[in-house]
C-alpha cells in the first residue's frame, strides 16, 4: 500500500513560522499581528498564508520594539527557545535600535516622580469629582 501525500501539507504559512520561532504565543496572535500590519515581509505588508523563504527579511513590531530578522531556517514545529532562535538572525541595526530605545525609555521613566503612597479614600473621591466635573 502506498501512502498518498497531500501537496498542501508541505507548505509552511508565515503565521505558523512566527509561532514556531516563538515570536508569538499562539498562531491566532501571530495571525492577528500580521493582519494588523505589525509584521512586514521584505518591507511590505503581507498575509498570514504567505510562505516564508530562507533569506527573506521580516520586520516584527512587538510592544515598543521593532525587530528586523532574517529567516535562516524553516520549521513547522514549536520547540525550545534555543532551537527557535536558530530559525532566524536579528540584524545588528535592529539590536542597536532596540537597545537605544530601551535606554531612552529608562531615562524618561527616571525623570517622572512617583508618589510616596496611594491616595486616601477622600483624595480618590476628590479626584473623581474633578474628572467628572471636567468631562
UniProtKB/TrEMBL annotation:
Keywords: DNA-binding, RNA-binding, Stress response. GO terms for biological process: cellular response to heat. Residues 80-89 have a biased composition (Polar residues). Residues 80-135 are annotated as: Disordered. CDD domains: S4. Residues 12-75 form the RNA-binding S4 domain. Belongs to the HSP15 family. This is Heat shock protein 15.
Amino acid at each position: 500500500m502506498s501512502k498518498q501525500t497531500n501537496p498542501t501539507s508541505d507548505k509552511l504559512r508565515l503565521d505558523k513560522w512566527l509561532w514556531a520561532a516563538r515570536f508569538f504565543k499562539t498562531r491566532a496572535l501571530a495571525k492577528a499581528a500580521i493582519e494588523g500590519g505589525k509584521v512586514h515581509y521584505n518591507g511590505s505588508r503581507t498575509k498570514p498564508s504567505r510562505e516564508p523563504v530562507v533569506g527573506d527579511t521580516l520586520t516584527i513590531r512587538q510592544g515598543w520594539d521593532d525587530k528586523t530578522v532574517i529567516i535562516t531556517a524553516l520549521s513547522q514545529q514549536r520547540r525550545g527557545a534555543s532551537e527557535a532562535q536558530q530559525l532566524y538572525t536579528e540584524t545588528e541595526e535592529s539590536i542597536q535600535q532596540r537597545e537605544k530605545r530601551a535606554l531612552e525609555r529608562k531615562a524618561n521613566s527616571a525623570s517622572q516622580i512617583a508618589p510616596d503612597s496611594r491616595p486616601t479614600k477622600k483624595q480618590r473621591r476628590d479626584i473623581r469629582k474633578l474628572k467628572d466635573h471636567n468631562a
